Please model this.
Amino acid sequence: MASVYIPVQHSEEEVRVILDQLPRDASDILDILKAEQAPLDLWLIIAREYFKQGKVDHFRQILEEGISPEVDDYYADIKYERIAILNALGAYYSYLGKIETRRKEKEDHFIQATQYYNKASRIDMHEPSTWVGKGQLLLAKGEIDQALAIFKIVLEGDPDNVAALLGQACVEFNHEHYSKSLELYKRALLVFPTGPAAIRLGIGLCRYKLGQFEKARLAFQRTLQLDPENAEALVALAVLDLQSNEGGCVKKALSMLKLMSTGIRKGMQKMQKAFEIYPYCAMALNYLANHFFYTGQHFLVEQLTETALAVSTHGLTKAHSYYNLARSYHSKGDYEKAGRYYMQSVNEITKPKDFVFPYYGLGQVQLKLGDLSKALSNFEKVLEVFPDNSETLKVLGHIHVQLGKTEKALEFIRKATKVDPRDAQAFLDMGELLISSDTGAALEAFKNARILLTKKAEEIPIEVLNNIGVLHFEKEEFELAQETFKEALGSGIWDSFLGDEANSYDASASILHYKDMQIFKRLEENGQEVELPWNKVTIVFNLARLFEQLLYTQKASILYRLILYKYPDYIDAYLRLAAMAKARNNLSLSIELVNEALKINEKCPNALSMLGDLELKNDDWVKAKETFRAASEATYGKDSYSTLSLGNWNYFAALRNEKRAPKLEATHLEKAKELFTKVLVQRPSNLYAANGAGVVLAEKGQFDVAKEIFTQVQEAASGRVFAQMPDVWINLAHVYFAQGNFALAVKMYQNCLRKFYYNTDSQIHLYLARTHYEAEQWQDCKKDLLRAIHLSPSNYTLRFDAGVAMQKFSASTLQKPKKMADEVRLTVAELENAVRTFSQLSAASNLHIHGFDEKKINTHVEYCKHLLLAAKVHREVAEREEQQTKQRLELARQVALAEEARRKAEEQRKLQMEKRKQEDEARKIKQQEDHLTRRNEQWKNKPKRREREKSDNDDDEGGHNSERRRKKGGGKRRKKDKKSRYDQMEEEEPEANDMQMYDDHGEDEDDNNNMNSKEEDTNQFDNQEDDNVEENAQDLLAAAGLEDSDAEEEAAPTSTAGRRKRAWSESDEDEPTQKRSESSPIRENSAEPQGSDKEDTDKQSANDAVDEED
Model:
């Protein structure tokens, strides 16, 4: 047993104090310590032992006595022990302030701790333990940043201060800097390897937060080795065991179940052991309560959580306890208690990210209790912590829907579908939200949900298929709608009426005998069950509505009657049968069917409104007004249709008055406006009310305001099958017409006619004709009237209007100052047609039926005949002018053609001359190059001739040698002349080709060729003169005694006759070659160039003779 020894004053004896057997009254041990003036470290040891034994009052009594004034005075020279006692008291009050829940007491404890630490600092302000104590106090107060600064100050003076290292590690852990915290814990362990097990516990917690679960497990296990009864380590290991089942989710099913059961079993064993070691460990109690919650043992959950709340002082731990207790009551349906405990759990949490689940549970309870604003706030806090939580996003979407914020709801639902694209419910929710605003997007959402449910092999709810079918119906995709409705219905009695055998039923009888249910009774007699489940009634009704839209009235009628056979109180079936009868213009039958519906519910607003409409068509205005009022009163004025009907009644009453009394008309219009406005106040998106208000404003002359309203209604109604409103298009066109904007009015009428009536409505054609008439577009007016007559041939008014249009066109044409012949001829034809039309109307026997005045028609006939006579005169004048104009135009055309031909010929001639000029220049350049080439060859052959001449002079002397030289020279000359002759012939060939091409261009071109030929001869003569100059230069060299042997060989005969004789002989030798060249087709057409060459040759011979004489 541990003991301490108190030395007896003035003696060598000691008083032994066994620490496990300390006196129950601390005063006894205090008397000994005071009497013997024991060292202060013994005071601190004994006080700490009392604290370990749970005797906190004794602990505090000893330490407070140790800092009393008389003790301070006696131990004034001892600093460390006095500081240690003060720091111990400061740490004690810091702990009390940390665990205290009441704010005032908490602050008092922190103030006392601060006073003790300040007093210790006055003794020695540099004592590290005091600074560490202050840092711990700041941590308890939540001033983490200031605590970190103090710990850093301590570590700057002593880097190995274990307490400061642990304090800074705790601060970094709270800052979620788990890596830094881990490094500090490891550093403290290196400095103090035999430190407490709490250091390993801190390391394990850091490893756990970093996701290093295996290393965390090792750290917790080491903690238990050092401290086997460390409840925190046991709880941490249990949590790891409970979480180990998550790793098995990716394995096979059997292995996963085995891992889950093993992990739960190990975790609960550790939790149980921790509970046995320390029954008041709040963390263990909370985890055990959580386990028993999932096992459904709510009694144990409540007992454990209440115990945890009694022993726990930590806010987050208490929040877990309250959450477990709230969940237990929530699952049992006690929403008031659950909400109260959820709220207490939330109050214990400083930041939602620390523990967000109580906010979610509180939001669920508040949503259940109808407190939408508070529920919204709590779910938004959950979303801040988990922004991608699909369930939270969907809940927020539903809350915004209930608050009327559809756009915000769509935003959350869309985000939920992006976060989890496999969540079918999110797509269903999005479809429900979009079904009233964007049918296309809603249809896509429902289709996606359908695909996801099919992939999961889950049954598709019949409501989803019904919505898909209705959306296809609204988009006019009738085949897809029919397939979807049939898929939703499956097989049943309705299959007997959807096949070809349904055509055997009489269409008229199917409506007239709506009460006749014999067909269904016969089926039952034949042993076939006629069953219609309640959840498929809506599908059957929608399918019948589809058949009605497709004009399959037989099938639609049978399905409506099937509904009435099984569910006789289904009013909508009666009303649809009445609508079908109304479409057949059978108003009496339609009224009878509506009355049958009213027998079921005499205050049905739809039936009353339909009855009032039918009475209005029967021209029973009084009854119609009373019926509409009854429909409005049945819904306390909330039924829009009945109010609209009353507004329409007042509008038609204002226009129906034949005398059009201004006061009565204004009264009815004002009442109609009031009723339309009332509907718009109730339902701002009601298109029919807005259209009615625009009509009333237009009747009052407020065209700009009416146009703005009609435009907005038109935009809102576009793309809706059940809200097709051709009336608003027509009204907008009427406004343009009234404002004089005829082009836009025509365009609007045409668009409406094409979009809604497929160009088959005679009334809109009449509107178009009127617009063209006012715009003085008579021909377009006539065309539209003819189309209207084609659609309504029995309407004599249209024929009269067509005659007036032709008459007006003719009169306007004849009034023109300048008229074309075609216009006058058309005018004559139109007048003849007008006379014929008015004559036919005049001959009709029932003019008074159509409202025609015979005298007025005869007046039109006479006027048209008068115009016809005048038009014929104008036609003759116009035709004469037209003939004269044609003659002038023909003459001008001939002159223009002649001038154009002359211009083209001149351009062609200039082009040919330019081309010839370029070719002549090219030919000259070619001749010069060939001449230069020949001269170079001659210069190369002169040395050989000089050597020959020298050899002949050595062998022979006298005239014999001279004769031999002449003979040889003559042979050489012949060869040279022959070669030159060939060269000349080759040069002449392209020239002959060119001349052959020119011969084909007429007389002018022949003259040009002759001119070019002369120029060619001149050029050749110039070239010959150049050659003579060169030969004269050779003669001068010979006279000077400088000529070579080649020059002598080439010397001419001494006599002119000899030269001529040799030239003629050479010409005779070359004659075969020349004849061959002349025989070619090209040379035959080039006689003049050939003569020119011969002439050049003669000139050359003459020059040679002259040289010889010289």
User: Anything to note?
Assistant: Strands lie at 3-7, 14-18. The longest helix spans residues 854-955. Residues 797 and 851 are 9 Å apart (CA to CA).
